[in-house]
Fold this protein.
Amino acid sequence: MWFNNAFTYYFTKPFDTSIDSLESALAEHIFRPCGTQDQQKQGWVSAIPGTQNLVHKANNNALLCLKTEEKILPTSVVKDALEEKVQLIEAERGQKVGKKEKQTIKEEIVQQLLPKAFTKSSRLYAYINYDLQRIIVNTSSANKAENLLAFLRQSLGSLPILPFKPNSELIVMLTQWVKNDELPTPFEFSTDIELKALDEEAAVAKLKNHDVTEEEVQLHISNGKFVHKLGLVWDEKIKFNLNEDAAIKQIKFLDVIKEQNEDVGNDDKLAKFDADFALMSGELDQLLNELAKHWDTESEQ
């Protein structure tokens, strides 16, 4: 279990719900497949596929998994069926169908088509760190992260959290790092950077596989662009992109980390999953701690 993205939040009040209580709360909102008239269903499933517990605990981290199933109903199909139905009604009546009636017809068509629609499903993981009082969601989408958190809030009754990010503008700090060619130890520059102007034109420069300390990047900064995404390497262990919203994306755990679990055989999938999650979460938590040292935030550990 290796996260490749991280939207991070911290608890504004102590999260002291026990693992057993957390398990019970999630069980009240367990996943159930879409019925014939459902467009989407969500619910909690076992964090480790094939096991019974919804929550998996390792190193005082609680891993959760939200499953979403939705019906695939192409907009073009609904649109064509709606147009055909409206034309028939208008031909019979000799007058136009109103906007409100058209919406009602559309809803009826959707309900007729839903039982025949294919379904697709997805799983979204997150873990709660009890010691550091954080929750980390494995997604590159802020909307998906918020959706999981909203469902967790519904399951628990409350979820007092705020985004884990600086109180000041992160783009200013990132720009200064690049402009001065100075990174706090043990960070190093990687090879991705995105710069954006703050004026009305909002010109953007995206550079990949590029030395971010070169003159070209400095020229963009001199022309008024700020760094909105910066590729970094932490302690020669994790390569990632740090975005303007403090989201960590395109995480790559380097060999020096993954080699630590080589002695755990792949034939025991449960043991491998557990070992990988424990290792991954431990390293990711350290990375977040290091970042927090260098920005002014109430969530500093």
In short: The helical segments are 19-27, 75-93, 99-113, 142-156, 170-179, 215-222, 255-258, 269-292. The radius of gyration is 24 Å.
